UniProtKB/TrEMBL annotation:
Pfam families: ATG17_like. Residues 32-446 form the Autophagy protein ATG17-like domain. Autophagy-specific protein that functions in response to autophagy-inducing signals as a scaffold to recruit other ATG proteins to organize preautophagosomal structure (PAS) formation. Modulates the timing and magnitude of the autophagy response, such as the size of the sequestering vesicles. Plays particularly a role in pexophagy and nucleophagy. InterPro entries: Atg17 (IPR007240), ATG17-like_dom (IPR045326). PANTHER family: AUTOPHAGY-RELATED PROTEIN 17 (PTHR28005). This is Autophagy-related protein 17. GO terms for biological process: autophagosome assembly; autophagy of mitochondrion; piecemeal microautophagy of the nucleus. Belongs to the ATG17 family. GO terms for molecular function: molecular adaptor activity; protein kinase activator activity. Residues 119-182 are annotated as: Disordered. It is a peripheral membrane protein.
Length: 502
């Protein structure tokens, strides 16, 4: 700061080489003008700083409001993604329940088929055409006619001979020997499963599997929706800028005010120095001269002018730096605002996409439920097949027991017939002896033309079927098969045996 020197007093002893007073006045004037300009700039910067601070606060308020709007919409988008995922999970849960039910029924059907494959059928049980089979044999042999245990024999001229024997050039004896060979070799016996139409079962299961795959294709239409939404939400979140760090307005304005006060003091000092130098110049023009001490003081004050101006410039730079700090905060806030506007635009587009997703998910859900209902209907044939072949096995075992019972009946009837014939033969023999004794004792005395019937022999008797029907032919059932049939039918509910649908 310039010293508070008084106006120099005139003196007659001023040296001739002292600086001219006019030059000192011009220096003082120039310094004052520079100081005034710098203070004006500082004032403008301070005013601009205040307006910039207002703009920063306004932008920050908009950024905060938009940040809340962005976060709210992101929460809504996350809820939509969660809702879609929940709907898909519920539908997939129903599909898994159907898969479990299908596996249970398929396993039950497989178990029945496996059981049928373990139960042998004697060759005598299938000696007629396969056309009479209610299921159709899947493994016909070349050397025998196919049938099921429920087939009825075809009418032929010889019930003991197949009509194809002549074509195959086989004699009845050879056929009987072959049948006996097959009966002896149980490895060649068929099983109940050989009479099952497994191709139809495979076609049914293949159809169900194709329909199940179609359901997967329906569900796959929206399978990526939850993940896609989650990824989009995460990407948008990653673009949200961090919160704007505002500078300390109190500190900035306090520093600017302090700097302005110092600059005002410097400007006042420059103005006072200029006034002193102007007065000195007027005195000099009036012919007065100055002492050496006065000139030295003026020169010293003139030497301090650049330092004062420099301090004023530093003050301007300081205020400008605070202004630039506020400008940087404003630019950051404006950038954040622009970013949030872009995010809100992206969220608007995402909203349209989510609307389409929800509509598509609803359509997929309705279509999937309809298809799932159709799949549930397709499980009924599997259950029906399970009941059909369970009843088939049960009926076959009952057939074995029925054949064994009929054989017992036939054998009992034959025993009665044999006993009756033996008793009748004994009676006839006894009658013949009695008649012979009568003839020997009395016949010679009876005239020949008297009662001619007396010489007749007693009638011989026979017992035969009604109207000479052929004896019933029953396939041979081994005791082992009968025992197995008893074991397989024991403990089975009456419902299976009484509600068969063969």
């Amino acid at each position: 700061m310039i010293s508070e020197s008084k106006a120099p007093s005139p003196s007659a002893g001023t040296p001739p080489d002292q600086p001219h007073i006019v030059s000192l006045v011009l220096q003082a004037k120039k310094a004052l003008q520079q100081g005034e300009q710098l203070c004006t700039n500082a004032h403008s910067l301070s005013s601009a700083s205040a307006q910039i601070a207002v703009d920063v606060l306004a932008l920050d308020a908009q950024v905060r409001w938009m940040s809340e709007a962005v976060l709210d919409q992101l929460k809504l988008a996350a809820q939509v993604a969660k809702n879609i995922e929940q709907k898909r999970s519920e539908l997939e849960g129903q599909v898994q329940e159907w898969d479990t039910l299908r596996n249970q029924r398929s396993d039950a059907l497989d178990a029945v088929l496996e059981s049928l494959g373990t139960q042998s059928v004697p060759p005598d049980f299938h000696t007629v055409s396969a056309d009479s089979s209610p299921f159709g044999s899947q493994n016909p042999s070349e050397d025998e006619d196919e049938s099921t245990p429920f087939g009825l024999p075809q009418s032929t001229s010889n019930p003991r001979q197949s009509p194809t024997d002549t074509i195959r050039n086989r004699s009845p004896l050879a056929r009987l020997q072959e049948k006996k060979s097959r009966r002896m070799d149980k490895r060649r016996w068929k099983t109940l499963r050989d009479f099952v139409d497994e191709r139809a079962i495979e076609d049914l299961l293949d159809t169900i599997e194709r329909d199940r795959q179609e359901l997967d294709d329906i569900l796959a239409q929206t399978s990526d929706y939850p993940e896609s939404l989650a990824t989009t939400i995460d990407n948008i979140k990653s673009t949200i800028p961090a919160e704007v760090v505002l500078p300390s307005f109190d500190t900035i304005f306090a520093s600017q005010e302090e700097t302005s006060a110092k600059m005002a003091e410097h400007l006042e000092s420059l103005a006072h120095h200029y006034d002193n130098m102007t007065n000195a110049m007027h005195e000099y023009e009036a012919g007065e001269e100055f002492h050496d001490d006065d000139m030295e003081g003026m020169n010293t004050d003139a030497d301090t002018l650049p330092g004062v101006v420099m301090e004023l410039e530093e003050g301007v730079h300081s205020i400008e730096a605070y202004r630039d700090q506020l400008l940087a905060a404003k630019a950051a806030a404006q950038e954040h605002l622009d970013t949030h506007r872009r995010i809100l635009k992206d969220l608007d587009e995402l909203g349209d996409i989510m609307t389409d997703m929800l509509e598509r998910q609803q359509h997929v859900e309705m279509e999937g439920l309809d298809h799932l209902a159709h799949l549930h209907l397709q499980l009924s044939p599997i259950e029906e097949l399970h009941h059909k072949y369970t009843s088939y096995q049960y009926a076959y075992n009952k057939l074995v027991l029925e054949l064994a019972r009929r054989r017992q009946y036939r054998e009992a009837a034959q025993r009665v017939v044999a006993n009756t014939i033996a008793e009748l033969d004994a009676m006839v023999a006894e009658e013949r002896m009695l008649r012979s004794d009568f003839q020997a004792e009395h016949g010679q005395y009876i005239p020949e033309d008297l009662c001619l019937c007396i010489e007749n022999l007693p009638n011989r008797w026979t017992v035969s079927t009604w109207n000479d029907e052929s004896l019933e032919t029953l396939p041979e059932v081994e005791a082992e098969l009968v025992e197995q049939a008893k074991q397989r039918t024991s403990g089975i509910g009456v419902g299976i045996g009484t509600s068969q649908s063969l």
